[in-house]
Amino acid sequence: xxxxxxxxxxxxxxxxxxxxxxxxxxxxxxxxxxxxxxxxxxxxxxxxxxxxxxxxxxxxxxxxxxxxxxxxxxxxxxxxxxxxxxxxxxxxxxxxxxxxxxxxxxxxxxxxxxxxxxxxxxxxxxxx
Length: 128
Known about the structure:
By secondary structure, this protein is an alpha+beta fold. It has helices at 11-16, 47-64, 85-96; strands spanning 4-6, 21-24, 27-34, 72-79, 102-107, 118-125. Strand 4 (72-79), helix 3 and strand 5 (102-107) form a beta-alpha-beta unit.
């Protein structure tokens, strides 16, 4: 199976020179995904909604590449305020509670734009 690039259609992907996901064999590598609602190109103010949007975008990229959320084996979360961790983890429990990938949470000083509160990247391995 050849390398395949997945795009969400965001103009930033072309400008910054990256893909939303790269499919390589039985692996999917999903780039850091922020909380934009790509249908409206808006960013909600709260971390809960941003986290849900991240997972929605990640799920769509995985699906396009022939993967399911259950294939996620690794997740890394970047938040800009430690006070948002519990709200974010509640969403993780809803989405990944039965999947339980290896995961890391990092508190960072900022993301690309100040309204961004969370960024999530995942790696998935196709189940055979």
